[in-house]
Amino acid sequence: MEEKAPAESATAPVDLDKINSGVRFLNHPDVQSTPLSERLAFLEKKGLSRAEINAAVEKLHQASATQTISASQSSSASPWSLLYPVLGTTAILGFLWRFLLYDSNAENEHIQKGPAPLTQEAGNTLIQTMQQQTTEISKLVQTLHQGNRERHDRNVSQDEHDRVIAELRAEISSLQQKVKDLGGNTTVVAKAEEPRLPEDKGIDFEAVAQKMLDALELVEKDNTPEVIKTAATILLMYTKNLIEHPDVPRYRRIATGNANFKQKIEPLKHYEQLLSSIGFEKAGMNMEWKWHSAPAFNSYMDILKAAVYAFECTVSNSDASKSLVENARTKLSGPKEVTPAGTEEKETLVAPNLESFLTKLKNKSESPNAEAQKNEPKYPQSFGDVIKMVQNGEEVPGIKTIEDKVSTDADKCLEEPPTSQEVKKPWQQA
Fold first, then answer.
1. For 346, what's the count of Cα atoms within 13 Å in the CB-facing half-sphere?
2. At what angle do helices 324-332 and 205-222 cross, to 10 degrees?
3. For the range 317-321, what are the long-range contacts, defined as Cβ-Cβ under 8 Å and sequence gap of 24 or more?
4. Where on the phi/psi map is residue 184: left (φ > 0), alpha (ψ -120 to 50), or beta?
5. pLDDT for 177-235, tens place per residue?
6. What is the pTM of this model?
7. Are 304 and 211 within 8 A, CB to CB?
8. How many Cβ atoms are within 10 Å of 303's Cβ, its own excluded?
9. Could you tell me which residues come within 8 angstroms of residue 295 by beta carbon, excluding any fewer than 6 positions away?
């Protein structure tokens, strides 16, 4: 039996799959630390024959030898494989370095040679053109400045001219009135009250006055007394300044967007007709008095004064029995001067010469308090003048010096020591 077993094992068929699986098992990394005898015994337990185990061992040795040869070959070839990239990189860097040196040398040569004549000529032409344009622009700017200055001077001179003309007109009207009062032969006769004749014949005085009276009648008819009185207060504020200073432009305008106008005049029915009857016309956002430049200025002023008198009577309730129309008509038909009772004579005045006229005009224009006004101290016009007077040690008029002392009864208060009553705390109160 023992002699036949080896023969049988030698002649037994070999399974290649088992041999390959044995090689994989022996070559597996997890069993490399296990002794070879134990691994072979494990293969026998798995059913591999001795021939299959020997074939697997031989095949494992052949595979190990092949791996060793390939590893030695790869180790011998690795230095060259590392050297080739280094050599290629060195060659490329050398080529680039020479190219960079060539470019820098060419640029230095170009800089040393300087700009081409054509470029230099073009630059000079451009500089000359820019200088010419700059000179022209400066001339234009100077011309514009000069034109603006001339326009401003012209406006200032025009304003000054208008102001002088307005002052001359006011002076001429005042001189005319004073000449009428001082010169000429006048006859004063006592008569009953009769309507005054208008000074200016260029307008239909009666028609304009009747238009104002009709407007007052409509206002009084369609409005309550409270509304009329409220509106009359604001209208007086507008027209009072206008009568006193008709040459001032801002007194001739009424701002319709003003709060007082909207709250107190617009609720008054027929207010536009009333304002137009006394000379106000619509001008943009304002209403402007257009009679200041009319030839019949005095007649228009009489109509305006009659309306103002009616407003004053309404506000003051001086004559409640009369209406607005009656008060205005009373002002328009005011009485003339009357001589004392029982005397009817003519007063003949000799026309004075120029010197006497100027003397009377000067004496009449001087106020009674002229002496007192001359004796009054001259007050400083600004805070800077006050500072200068204080620095110079001068006494500033109108400033009172307050003594630095306590009141007269301060001694009594200081003699009595202050007494304070101790306040009981809540928990101390019984």
1. 7
2. 160
3. none
4. left
5. 888 777 654 443 334 344 444 444 445 677 877 888 888 888 888 888 888 888 888 78
6. 0.32
7. no
8. 25
9. 200, 202, 203
Q: Are 330 and 304 in contact (CB under 8 A)?
A: no
AA letter at 139: K
- Please state the φ and ψ torsions of residue 151, each to the nearest 5 degrees: -65, -40
- Asked if residue 216 lies in contact with residue 210, where contact means CB atoms within 8 angstroms, the answer is no
Question: Mind listing the pLDDT tens digit for each residue in 283-309?
Answer: 777 888 877 666 667 777 878 788 888
Q: Are strands 280-283 and 286-289 parallel, antiparallel or unpaired?
A: antiparallel
3-state secondary structure the chain: CCCHHHHHHHHCCCCHHHHHHHHHHHCCHHHCCCCHHHHHHHHHHCCCCHHHHHHHHHHHHHHHHHHHHHHHHHHHHHHHHHHHHHHHHHHHHHHHHHHHHHHHHHHHHHHHHCCCHHHHHHHHHHHHHHHHHHHHHHHHHHHHHHHHHHHHHHHHHHHHHHHHHHHHHHHHHHHHHHHHHHCCCEECCCCCCCCCCCCCCCCCHHHHHHHHHHHHHHHHHHCCHHHHHHHHHHHHHHHHHHHHCCCCHHHHEEECCCHHHHHHHCCCCCHHHHHHHCCEEEECCEEEECHHHCCCHHHHHHHHHHHHHHHHHHHHCCCCCCCHHHHHHHHHCCCCCCCCCCCCCEECCCCCCHHHHHHHHHHHHCCCCHHHHHHCCCCCCCHHHHHHHHHCCCCCCCCCCCCCCCCCCHHHHHHCCCCCCCCCCHHHCC
Handedness of CA 240, 243, 248, 252 (dihedral sign): positive
Specify the amino acid at residue 388.
Answer: K
Give the largest CA-CA distance in the chain.
199
What is the DSSP pairing of strand 346-347 with strand 280-283? unpaired
Please count the residues of the chain. 430
- Structure token digits, residue 194: 């009769």
C-alpha span between 8 and 381 (Å, rounded):
148
CA distances from 228 to 36, 278, 316, 427, 429 (A): 134, 17, 12, 69, 68
CB 430 within 8 A of CB 411: no
Query: Using 50, 70 and 90 to split pLDDT, how confident is the model at 310?
Result: confident
**Residue 385 near residue 398, CB atoms below 8 Å:** no
